[in-house]
Amino acid sequence: MKTLAALLATALLAQQTLAHFTMQYLWDNGVDQGLNNYIRVPPNNNPVTDVTSTDLTCNVNDLSGAGVSTLSIAAGTTITFEWHQHAQRTGEDPIASGHKGPVLVYLAKAPSTAATFSPAGAVWTKIYQSGLLTVTPQTWATDVVNATGGKHSVTIPKSLPAGEYLLRAEIIALHVAFTYPGAQFYIGCAQVKITSGGTANPPKVAIPGAYKPTDPGITVNIYNNLLNYTIPGPAVWTG
Ligand SMILES: [Cu+2]
């Protein structure tokens, strides 16, 4: 006998099979950089669901940076990521309102150029996360993304060394996450060059590697009036 929550979730899944999304725009200190510019664009808007797959790094097919330009930014700038279901900014929810969960941002410094960087191993630093914002009603970071035209922002820590980086933004949708695989990982990687910076050596994790199927923030029933939610991965490093 399925629980009501499971039945509801099954209905949601059927309804939202095509309601997926991709990262499509970067904004540098409030300036729109244009559709798909500086972004390693995935072949479609499907999520990744295997947390052990290299698809978790920068989306599917070992996305290469060949042919992708790199955006010059200053450390301390505010970068905004903008996500949509399809190549349209209006006419539908940016990321489909049934997709509830956390929003995270990581970055990794390239040994040389961002375009040639294949970010394997412990190279990723988490610089932002937002999860369950209010308990009653249950409000998620994804609700804010939907309410703000698909956008969320992060400040690039000033103490990061100058050089080329991949920015990895991630939205985890938990509407069918009560079993594994179920949680949907939406990943966008962008190429930036920090033109001025500091000397920090932040903590780093591997992606895949930082998440486990059994993490309480990955296999979770969000229709259970959660009192708290544990965002997967390491602590945020703020510089
Ligand atoms: Cu979806």
UniProtKB/TrEMBL annotation:
Q: Which residues form the Auxiliary Activity family 9 catalytic domain?
A: 20-226
Q: Which domain of life is it from?
A: Eukaryota
Q: Decide whether keyword Heme is in the record.
A: no
* Signal peptide residue numbers: 1-19
Q: Name one GO molecular function term.
A: cellulase activity
- GO terms under biological process: cellulose catabolic process
User: Does the keyword field hold Secreted?
Assistant: yes
Q: Which UniProt keywords apply?
A: Carbohydrate metabolism, Cellulose degradation, Disulfide bond, Polysaccharide degradation, Secreted, Signal
Q: Which family does it belong to?
A: Belongs to the polysaccharide monooxygenase AA9 family.
Protein name in the entry: AA9 family lytic polysaccharide monooxygenase
Provide the species name: Rickenella mellea
